[in-house]
Amino acid sequence: MIELSYELGPEFENQVISAILTDGAFFLRFRSIITPDIFTQENHRCLIEETNKYVRKYKKIPSKHILIECVRRATYRDKGGMVEIVKHAHPCENIEYIRSRVLEWAKWSAIDRILKGFTDMSETTPTEFAQQLEKASRIGDDLIMEHTNLQYGDTTDVRGEYIPTPWSWLNSRLNGGPEIGDLCVVLSIVNGGKTTALVNIAYQALAVGKFVVYFTFEDGEHKIKRRLLQRMMNETIDDLVKDPIYTRCRRVKFLKETGARCEIKDLSSRRSTVEDAAGFIKTLEETSGRKVDMVITDYADRFRAVNKYSEPRHALREIFEDCKWLARNLKVIHWTARQANKARAGKDIISIEHASESSGSMESPDLVLGLGRTLEDERLGRITLYLGKTRDAESHQRCSLMVDFSRQSMLEME
User: Fold this and answer.
1) Which residues contact 68 (CB under 8 A, 6 or more apart)?
2) Angle, in degrees to the nearest 10, between helices 220-233 and 244-258
3) For 54-104, what is the HEC assignment?
4) Is 352 helix (H, G, I), strand (E, B) or coil?
5) Contact predicate 385/401, CB 8 Å
């Protein structure tokens, strides 16, 4: 008998279970190869069987609460142990490592089963034995080789779903607005209007009934909510606090009429990664039963890079690559902002080459907008919107906007 032992250890198996229970996207991607028979612990095998059973029946991932109820109603020897596993499952900090090794784990587990099954090599031919080993070694290759092709006769619309921006001038150049899966960046100096621009973008998405998640590292949930209300009602802070009941009624009416939803999450208490933000979004979608359409991060360079770098520019590059991954993986439009060089103060043109610390971080975004103001613009309440980068239209164009920071409005000049 030929024996092979290839295990990444019980701890790795526990981490895979945690990833499955807390990351719906992870489970959906690797569901075909993470089968119960590759686990050594019976409770883990039973949890995978129960999760698969639920997905087959309801076509969606069960929440922790639902999975616990399914376990309690079923006939398992160690229900208490399974419930404890589900309760204490938490998002994995090293999810990228698990993704990179889970394919190897599935392949070697299948090979191990084949080798252990041949107690007598005379029962099979060398050709059959080789074919089974080859089949096991190809497990999961379809996940690596996922692709699409260009075939004559396809009628798929090349223009994907998009969400318009607040500015018709920009929408006309983007054929309606940024597409789902795009990473968009607003670039400006300190106090140059970055947050105000993001608030206007969020308001426009809410006005067309979208689900917006707003991550903030600076202002906090209360201030961002107040800014959104200022833009929604076109009122100053003093106007809002004069009649809070009227303000609340208008807010509720707006959200009810549009069908929109907005969740604001403060990340200033700790250094979160893009993976943390993605986990929050997936949990929110699971609990709300609704797909998130737009994510706004104020600001993305405050995220913590997963890897450690000696120079900030390398960390920033990784962060923005992860932000792009978030947009594509979760099928959302991801808007964020970056600070421009202080030398651009008083200038009307701000573009990708003016990104502070790392212009390389501007390789990942699909759209980069610059906000610049001269002294004359400040006097007249104007701001210049500059199209610094776009993949689907002509760049290096600009228009003037009227800005009123007291009401958080940034409107096109008539």
Assistant:
1) 83, 86, 87
2) 80
3) HHHHHCCCCCHHHHHHHHHHCCCCCHHHHHHHHHCCCCCCCHHHHHHHHHH
4) helix
5) yes
- Please state, in angstroms and rounded to a whole number, the distance separating the CA atoms of residues 31 and 45: 13
Domain boundaries, the chain: 10-144, 168-412
Residue that the structure tokens 């069908």 belong to: 259
Query: What count of other Cβ atoms lies within 10 Å of the Cβ of residue 315?
Result: 21
- Per-residue pLDDT of 182-209, as tens digits, reads 999 999 998 889 999 999 999 999 999 9
Whether 385 and 369 have beta carbons less than 8 Å apart is answered as: yes
CA distance 29 to 87: 23
Give the CA diameter of the chain.
91
Paired strand residues for 400? 384
For residue 194, which of 334, 90, 338 has the smallest C-alpha distance? 338
Distance of CA 319 to the CA centre of its chain: 12
For the record, the structure tokens of 166 come out as: 């607040």
What end-to-end distance do the CA atoms of the chain give, in Å? 83
Cβ(195)–Cβ(337) below 8 Å: yes
269: Cβ contacts below 8 Å, ≥ 6 apart: none
DSSP-derived pairing of the beta strands 382-390 and 367-372: antiparallel
Homologous superfamily (CATH) of 168-412 is P-loop containing nucleotide triphosphate hydrolases (3.40.50.300)
Digit-by-digit pLDDT tens for the chain (414 residues) are 344 334 466 788 888 888 888 887 788 888 888 888 888 889 998 999 989 888 888 877 888 888 898 888 888 888 889 999 998 888 877 777 788 788 888 888 888 888 877 665 566 777 777 888 888 888 877 776 666 665 655 555 556 789 999 999 999 999 899 999 999 999 999 888 999 999 999 999 999 999 999 999 988 899 999 999 999 999 888 888 888 888 888 888 998 999 999 999 998 866 788 988 998 998 899 888 899 999 999 888 889 888 888 888 888 888 999 999 999 989 999 999 998 888 888 888 888 888 876 667 788 899 999 999 999 988 999 999 999 889 877 888 989 999 999 999 999 986
Pick the CATH number of 10-144 from 3.10.20.580, 1.20.120.80, 3.90.1150.10, 1.10.860.10: 1.10.860.10
If DSSP codes are grouped into helix, strand and coil, which group holds residue 60? Answer: coil
What angle separates helix 312-330 from helix 274-288, to the nearest 10 degrees? 20
Q: Give me the amino acid identity at 360.
A: G
